[in-house]
Structures are given as C-alpha cells and as structure tokens.
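User: My collaborator sent over this chain with a note saying "see what the structure looks like." That's all I know about it. Can you take a look?
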Amino acid sequence: MRLSDLGEFELIDLITHHQPDAHGRLLKGIGDDCAVIDGGGNSATLITVDTMVEGVHFSLETSTPEGLGAKLLAVNLSDIAAMGGTPTEVFLAISASPDSDATIIERMVGGLQTSGARFGVQLAGGDTTATDGPLVLSLTAVGACPVDEVVYRSGAVPGDAVYVTGTPGDSAAGLAVSKGVDGVTPAYREMLLRRHLRPEPRVEAGRDLSTRKVASSMIDVSDGLGGDLRHICRASGVDMVIDPDRLPISEALGAFCDTSGQNPIDMVLGGGEDYELAFTTCKHNFAVEASFECRLSYIGTVTEGVGEVRIGTVGSSQRYEKKGFDHYSR
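Assistant: Without extra context I'll predict from the sequence alone. Here is the result:
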C-alpha cells in the first residue's frame, strides 16, 4: 500500500500501533501537539519537531529568508503554546545542496534568532547535511510547563464550549494572494500575506489558558480548523457542533472571498497554517473572552459522540467531512 493510499494521519496511526504505552519519564508520546516528559518535581518538558521543505511549505520567491526563519520558529512555538507551555530552546537541522547560497541560510538563521529573542528562545544546536534535493529545514523545540498545567487534546467533555483565537482562514487567503490571486486593497493584501508568511504563535494566550485552568483541551490550528477540532474530538471521545454563523471572519478574508468567489466558511474551516489555538472550556463564559489580549471567539459546543465535528446547531447539523491538510493525499 502506497502512502498516497493510506494518508498522513492513517500513517501516524500505523506508527502509533507499534508503540508501547508511555512509561518511565515519558508522560505523553504520539498523539498530541508535543511529547511530554517528566522533568522532576512538578515540572514537565515539552518537545516538538516540525519540518519545512522548499517547494512544499515555502518558496524563496515569495518569502524572504528572514521571514522563513521566523515562520519555522512560529510553527514549533505554536505546538508548545497548544500544550500551555513556555518555549525555551530550539535545535535546527538543515539539509541543503552544496550549491546553495550560504547567505540565504545565514539570513534564515538570523530571522529565526531575532524572532526567538522575542520569546526568550535560544538556538542551542542542531545538524547540517548535504542533499541533492530541495532545501529542508527541521526544527525541534523544547518547552517547560508545570505537570498539572499541561493541556492535552483529550480533556473535552460534553457541555464544554468551543473557542478559537484570532481569525482562521487568513493564511489560506494569503497563500492564494502570494500565488497571484488578488483583487483586494493593498492593506488587506499586506495583512493576508503577513498572516501566511509571518504567523504569530499564541504563546502568551496558551500559557494564560493553562495557568488560569481555562482550557480543558487545546490544539494548534495548523491543518485546518475543522480537521484539527476533529483531533480533539477523537482524543476526547466526543463530538462537536460548530455554528458557522459564529466563526470569526476577518474583514480582509471577507473582501478576498467577495472578489475570488470562495466561501469564507470553507476557508475558515479548511484553510491551513493559521497557527491559532482552538480549545474547549467548561462553559460559555463571556468573561473569558473579555479578559484575553487576543481575540477569542465562541464557535460551538461539545456533545456526546464518537469523534466527529458537525456543522450547524445542536439538533440540526451535518458531519464535517474534510480531513484537513494531508501531505500524502493527491
């Protein structure tokens, strides 16, 4: 069976099937945004890794090397944020052709370090290797969190409210703009491109949701809101009903959809690379929304179920079918 027949998430399930249950220092292995390792006392160490491949995840024709470094960091810090942690160190592995321009690599690392300084994150090591293929960048991020404050995907229960930070869908529109789909004002164009090329990880929001015991479950929105919410549903053994009328749509995304003919709801639910946080909390509490610096939107309800996301209202909804971005789908 080829990977294109199997699919990315089925491949992960296949790998997980051969893994023993977490034991020893490993508190949580495959199946969440980060691995969680016992750090002694009440401390947990969070570890995550993400890889970006030229021609698949980025193009140096549309992104500056500095922006690429900043995005590579943001992708990883978003995973740390989704567990409620504080990022500390990163390790960078570079696979590049011997003919690659060393200045581009230097500028990329500079962008990563400049962005990392904002979050108190240090580049602590890594690896380099030669390849005849495209430029490949792999970053491993380390974070810390008190054991009793780590937020997993598995904590949602029926009756919880579903929230999301920011305005998902903007990055997908930014990707389309970078490929020449346009028609919006220069200000909207700049905003959408920035959301795609320079995402801002919600580290502070994730930490607040953790320390204040607000989030019962949480996930980083990287493969599409609808598909990522399904991961929470399956880990928690519940369903979610998402009200499309409550989904946050930015003015820029609305304008883009008006000119391109795309459905903004589809882009919010199915667009990827937003690096927002989706989470559940014990009740729909407007005080929660008012007390956070970033935008929080109540978008639905957790119900009893078997791991599905449904679109509509409780009592009148249909299953959301799209899986989210899959590296091996064709």
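A starting point for your reply to your collaborator: The mean pLDDT is 92.
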